[in-house]
C-alpha cells in the first residue's frame, strides 16, 4: 500500500523541523538521511546554539534584499523569541547581541522535535529525487522505497558538514525541476595561505583583534592563526565576500603612537602578541629593536604592514570546516510570499538550500526559521485553497 501524506518535508534540520511544528494539523512525513533529526543544530554555537540576534536586517545577509526582508517581516527575531518563550525555552543574550540557549542546543531541539510525536519520520533514508504525478501529487523516491505527497517542502540544507549528513540533493532536485542554482562554495570558513604568507602558520593558536577589507566590505573582529591558515570570527565573515584576489588586514590603526620615541624593542612596544610581532618582523626582514633606529624605508614598510597588510589567500578550508554554503537556488524563481516554486507548483523551499547566507551571529538560524515559517503558511494556504475547490489531499 502506498504511503500518502499532505506534505513531505525533505530534510529534518532546523528549517524542516520548524516548518513541521506549524503543520501539526496535517499529515506530514519528514525525511532525512541521518538517524537523528537536527544533527547540525546540536553542534551549532559550540553546542549552545546561537539561534538569532537582537538586530537582524538584510545587511547581515548575502542575497536579494527584498526577498529576505519579506521573510524577516513575517517572522523575525521578535516573533521567534515570543514563540520560543511560549514553548518554554530559556535563553540568554550574550556579546554581539546574540541569543543562545541557556544550557545547550538540546533544549531548542527538544522543542522542535515535539512534532515528530504526531508525524512520520523516515530516518536513515537517502532522497533520490522527486517526480510530479498526473493527479497533481508528487512521488518522492527514497533509498528504501517511495512515498507520495500533495505538496513538498525542500529543506535539505547546504553542503557544509558532510560528516553530519550534508549533501547536494536539494540542488539536484532544483535543477531537475528547471531551477537555476547559483554557484556554490564553502562560507563562514577559514582561509588557507600561499607560501609567501607561511610565516602566519607558525603562529597557530594566537588570536588578536583586527580590521579587514575585502571587496567593498570593511569588517572588524577577532582573527585566529591556525595550522591550515587563518580563521576566527573576522575571517569566517570575510569568507562570505572573498572571491579571489587580495584582502587587506589592519592590525593597528595607528602603530606610530606606540613606536615613535619608544626606547624599547618594537616587539615590546606594540600592544600585540610578542610572538606575532617577531614573526612579522622576520617576514619583513626587519631586525627587532627600537623603532627610531630603523632606516626610514624600513619604518615605512613596518607601518604599512601593521596598518594595511595586503595578500591573496590561496583558498579556504573546504566544506568539512564550513558552517554554511554560499549560493543556492535562485530567489527569482521562488515566490517570497509563500516560498513556493514559480516553476513547479506545489514545491516549496526553505533554509540554506536557497541563495541566502547570513553572517556569523545567529543570522543563519534566524533565516532557517523565518523562511520555514513563510513556507509553512504558504503550504497551509495552498492546501486550504485546494480543499475549498474540492481537490482531495492527504
Automatic annotation (TrEMBL):
Keywords: FAD, Flavoprotein
RsdA/BaiN/AoA(So)-like Rossmann fold-like domain location: 6-377
Presence of keyword Ribonucleoprotein: no
Segments forming domain RsdA/BaiN/AoA(So)-like insert: 185-324
UniProt xrefs under SUPFAM superfamilies: FAD/NAD(P)-binding domain, HI0933 insert domain-like
Organism: Wolinella succinogenes (strain ATCC 29543 / DSM 1740 / CCUG 13145 / JCM 31913 / LMG 7466 / NCTC 11488 / FDC 602W) (Vibrio succinogenes)
InterPro entries from the UniProt entry: BaiN-like, BaiN-like_dom_sf, FAD/NAD-bd_sf, RsdA/BaiN/AoA(So)-like_dom, RsdA/BaiN/AoA(So)_Rossmann
Protein name: FLAVOPROTEIN
Origin: domain of life: Bacteria
Cofactor: FAD
Pfam family for this entry, one: HI0933_like_1st
Amino acid at each position: 500500500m502506498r504511503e500518502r501524506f499532505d506534505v513531505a518535508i525533505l530534510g529534518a534540520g532546523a528549517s524542516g523541523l520548524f516548518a513541521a511544528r506549524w503543520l501539526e494539523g496535517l499529515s506530514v512525513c519528514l525525511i532525512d538521511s541521518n538517524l537523528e533529526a537536527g544533527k547540525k543544530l546540536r553542534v551549532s554555537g559550540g553546542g549552545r546554539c546561537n539561534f538569532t540576534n537582537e538586530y537582524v536586517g538584510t545587511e547581515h545577509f548575502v542575497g536579494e534584499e527584498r526577498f529576505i526582508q519579506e521573510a524577516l517581516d513575517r517572522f523575525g527575531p521578535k516573533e521567534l523569541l515570543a514563540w520560543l518563550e511560549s514553548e518554554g525555552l530559556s535563553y540568554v543574550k550574550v556579546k554581539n547581541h546574540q541569543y543562545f540557549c541557556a544550557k545547550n542546543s538540546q533544549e531548542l531541539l527538544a522543542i522542535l522535535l515535539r512534532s515528530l510525536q504526531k508525524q512520520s519520520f523516515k530516518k536513515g533514508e537517502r532522497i533520490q529525487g522527486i517526480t510530479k504525478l498526473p493527479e497533481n501529487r508528487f512521488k518522492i523516491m527514497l533509498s528504501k522505497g517511495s512515498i507520495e505527497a500533495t505538496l513538498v517542502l525542500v529543506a535539505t540544507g547546504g553542503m557544509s558538514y558532510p560528516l553530519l549528513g550534508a549533501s547536494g540533493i536539494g540542488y539536484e532536485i532544483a535543477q531537475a525541476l528547471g531551477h537555476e542554482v547559483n554557484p556554490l562554495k564553502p562560507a563562514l570558513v577559514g582561509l588557507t595561505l600561499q607560501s609567501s604568507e607561511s610565516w602566519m602558520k607558525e603562529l597557530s593558536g594566537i588570536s588578536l583583534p583586527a580590521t579587514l577589507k575585502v571587496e567593498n566590505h570593511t569588517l572588524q573582529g577577532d582573527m585566529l592563526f591556525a595550522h591550515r591558515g587563518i580563521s576566527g570570527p573576522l575571517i569566517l565573515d570575510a569568507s562570505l565576500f572573498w572571491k579571489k584576489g587580495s584582502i587587506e588586514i589592519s592590525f593597528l590603526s595607528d602603530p606610530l603612537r606606540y613606536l615613535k620615541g619608544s626606547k624599547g624593542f618594537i616587539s615590546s612596544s606594540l600592544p600585540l602578541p610578542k610572538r606575532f610581532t617577531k614573526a612579522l618582523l622576520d617576514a619583513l626582514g626587519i631586525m627587532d629593536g627600537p623603532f627610531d633606529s630603523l632606516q626610514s624605508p624600513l619604518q615605512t614598510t613596518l607601518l604599512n604592514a601593521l596598518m594595511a597588510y595586503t595578500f591573496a589567500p590561496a583558498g579556504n578550508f573546504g566544506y568539512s570546516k564550513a558552517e554554511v554554503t554560499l549560493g543556492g537556488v535562485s530567489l527569482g524563481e521562488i515566490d517570497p510570499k509563500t516560498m513556493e516554486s514559480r516553476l513547479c507548483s506545489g514545491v516549496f523551499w526553505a533554509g540554506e538550500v536557497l541563495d541566502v547566507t547570513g553572517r556569523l551571529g545567529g543570522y543563519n538560524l534566524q533565516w532557517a526559521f523565518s523562511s520555514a515559517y513563510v513556507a509553512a503558511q504558504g503550504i497551509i494556504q495552498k492546501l486550504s485553497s485546494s480543499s475549498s475547490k474540492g481537490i482531495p489531499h492527504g
